[in-house]
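Human: For the file, kindly provide a plain-text protein record giving the amino acid sequence and the backbone structure tokens, at your earliest convenience.
Assistant:
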Amino acid sequence: MKRRISPREAKRMMQRMGLSMGGVPDVQEVLIRTATKEIIVQNPEVAILEMQGQKIFQVTGGKIAEKKIEKAITIPEEDVQLVAQQAKVNLDEARAALEQTKGNLAQAILLLTQT
């Protein structure tokens, strides 16, 4: 027959081994961001285990949602000026066309001149 360890005994054993554990109250969401997506955990339980100066976060439960991250592109001002000049439009229209075509100069000029 296995002997059950009471929570009090477990806490003492953890302290002897240099471990401490606590919870984070009132967590509404946890966000994990990678290079290509975000993982959102709604209403999770979060526990922190501290061992030898390191913190380990344990996230359990909750509703999980994933969303892809679209990287924002930076459009050089020279590109905006070139498209505006070639398509004979103002800088704002050129910038909008470049954003729509994800920075492709030729596509932006075609987009602006075909209308």
In short: The two ends are 82 Å apart (CA to CA). Helices lie at 7-16, 77-87, 91-100, 105-113. The chain has two domains: 7-68, 77-113. The mean pLDDT is 88.
